[in-house]
Amino acid sequence: MKARLACLVLLAATPACAQVLPQGKEAAPGAYLSKSVKPDLAFGAFQRGFYVTAMKEAQKRLAEDPKDAAAMVLIGELYQDGLGVRPSAKEALSWYRRAADLGNASGAFRLGIAYLRGEDLPVDEAQARRYLEAAAAKGHATALYQLGMMQLEGELQNPAKAAEDFRKAALAGSHEAAYALGLLYKDGRGVGRDKAEAARWFKQAAAENLVAAQIDYAIMLFNGDGIARDEGQAAKLFQKAAGRGNPVAANRLARLYATGRGVDKNMIEAMKWHLLARSSGVKDDWLDAQLNTLSPAERRAVEEGLRKQIGGP
Fold it and tell me: CATH says 1-138 is which class?
């Protein structure tokens, strides 16, 4: 399970230049809170790639309100990625810290991650936890997810607390956390083993196109493991994950096409997906044996399918 969790990408938070709700929660990027709220020109320029304009608008906002934390985080992002300005991690962190000190969740999250990863700062887990907890207290889903991950690492692990953090993060919209919580339920780690609950959280993450969740949920559907068997739906999930380049999903999909489980039997499609999976290191002796039974015409059809799938001439 630890290996699967480690594969989850640590997402960057939504740009905190989004407007701030009266309750202190951040709105969705670019969302306008009401007709009475002025459009966020700085973030609008950022979204369209007009980074110099975004900087000018953010600076204008700070001139009008020196405590505009969302504008500070936007400036931090511009410096972090070198968008319209010379990249400077030092400048970025300075702006993130100023925003965090004003209670901005995204600024606190970015600073916490910088301490956790040692990005132009000394690695300091205590400081990382401090800032991530500050972001999490404001409902920052990715901060909650990262706190949960920290509970599964090192010598003093606390899977029960990890499950608690993952649940909060999942309910706040983190599909990575939903998948991680599903793994805990599947393995009975920190929570009671419950395959139905595992499937529930896998399904939520799969619906948000998290490939790892699509594969685990598809396997449970195919086997009827904790949920009703549905080979057709399993095949659709394998198709989605395989279409996004996952070799494990490609291998499973190849076997479904070769056996006619959940899809109509189609050896051309089966061998196409098999070769794609094999090229990424997923070996399957049984499918290799099936490949050897193809006629020359069928092999040409497989090659044509491969060219179309990978976009070749």
Answer: mainly alpha
Task: Tally Cβ neighbours within 10 Å of residue 53.
Answer: 16
pTM: 0.81
Q: Quick one: tokens of 238? A: 């394998």
Could you tell me the residue ranges of all domains in the chain?
1-138, 230-313
25 vs 33: CA distance, rounded Å: 11
Asked if the model's pLDDT at residue 23 lies above 60, the reply is: no
Question: Cβ neighbours of residue 306 under 8 Å, at least 6 residues apart?
Answer: 272, 275, 276, 312
Question: Cα(180)–Cα(145) distance, rounded to whole angstroms?
Answer: 9
Q: Give the chain's mean pLDDT.
A: 88
Residues in Cβ contact with 195 at an 8 Å cutoff, skipping those fewer than 6 apart? 185, 186, 220, 225, 226, 227
| 83, 92, 96, 204, 310 from 89: Cα distances, Å | 12, 5, 10, 36, 37
Q: What is the CA 9 to chain-centroid distance, rounded?
A: 6
According to DSSP, residue 205 is labeled: H
